[in-house]
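Usage example:
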Amino acid sequence: MMTAKKFLDNFGRSETLWMYACSRCGECVDVCPVYEKTSDKYTAPGFKIKKMRGLITKKLAPFTGSPSKESVEKVVKGLYECTLCGRCWSVCPYNYDLVELWEKARESAYGNGLAPESLQQVEEAIVTEKNIFKRPHSRRLDWTKDLDVPVGEKADTVYFVGCLMSYRGQLKPAASALASILNAAGESWTILKDEVCCGVPLKFSGATKQLDALMDTNIRAIEATGARKIVFSCPGCYRMFWQEYSKVLGKRVRMMHEIELIDELVKSGKIKFNGKLQERMTYHDPCELSRLSGVIDEPRNIIADIAKGFVELPNNKFNVACCGGGGLYKSVDTESSIGIAGERIAQAEQVGATILATACPSCIMTLGQAARSRKSKVKVIDFAEAVAQQIE
Amino acid sequence: MPKETSAPRKKYPPEVSKTTVIKGMLRTSLLDSAFHLLMAILLITGLIMDILGPWLGGWLHWMRQIAHGYLGAFFVLIFIVYLAKILYSKKMRTVLTATNYVDFLFYIAFVITGITIASVNSPWITYIPELAEVLAPIASYAPTIHITGTYVWILFSTVFPGGFLHGLASAYLIRHLKKRSKRGIQ
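Running the assembly step on the lines above writes:
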């Protein structure tokens, strides 16, 4: 049942003060990819803060009445029409953690039954089948067929595959590329026998009540392997782990994205390359990996070794423009999401690239879809694929 | 595509401290920082002069002349540019509330009455002598409007969260910032 009156009740003193402290400079408005695409002011970060401040004021101040259902619904719609890319945070002069603010507001919206139906289905899928696609949990390891992939063994390194890599056929080459890199480097590694969704889609949608159970399952499975290192292909899983799982796992287990691992393997001489890609290649920094996890230099170190004709995209590195696929935005407004990705593909075309490598399954899916719909010659691939092709 | 930016690399989750906030404000907009800083100085010095004036009298002369007078004159120039920026910039207009616009009406009243009060001596009368004649009709009311208006504005922008509450919230948060980065697992 919808309870608009309780929306934002989970905001404490800190969030409330920050919203009043916002200097209304509007820097965030200029850089928001969704606002740029839709021109709907309810998607503009600064405008959302203004409206949320208004809702909270109505709760706090006497004689102002309670927030109307319509105004709450408009704000909630704006909250979900967001890629959680963190670009608003990157330009905020107060350096306020706006990503956390949006996530917390979504949590309140979800808890009060205000979230879009498509995201409520995500929760149902994860609860029933432990993955975002509601595909049978028993088929999570199907991608490993005919591949040299150790499952549920004792090992030094766990490869946490994630839902997208496990279930999306389009991404199988990416997952198998990382498997071949780990094998080529002679790493002692395994994937989990009973891996379940890391929980990041629940965090993004605000359905955080189910998180503990998922985290518990994954943590027990990781501990059973005795691993001291976890590697991820998905920056969403990666951030979920270093932000949430690390509270339980502490410093016992080192967490790294595949790009960080590959960079280390190259530096230590465990993998060597036999040549360089001849095609003109560019790299799209996934927001979760570059801006929100600080992995910016590592891919470029590797690219220097594997690509001859590398060219940078505009809006890159820390200031990267989102592909449009983050924060479950694609489930909320597919057309705009693909539209934003289309602009990124257009930029790749403008710099003359024929290969667009990225290191995020969600970015690959979104950018790939946009490239197909534009009939673009730009081929979107996973970073690990580009690396695996050049290994001796 | 959204505007290409060159924001300096920061660490997420943000490490928020007094220094990062002040640096961030200065980096983002010198005009915005100057406007807010001068507003704070003028409000604080104005209140000190009004509340403590009867006891401290001549001791506050330097404050009246420099911190409230000359800085006030500088504020007028900054305020004009700031207003122009708001009118020009769609992004700023998007984030301002109705209360903010009423705040600006108060500021305009403070600027006009402030110049009127200051016009009996420098700096305005020195450079624009014609002002004395223009402002003459309100000369006798200006101090009352200026002071009373300040208290009305404080009340107004507290009840309807506006500039004063924004200032208090900012000052409180900046004073108490101690949020450290939660990362450190690498």
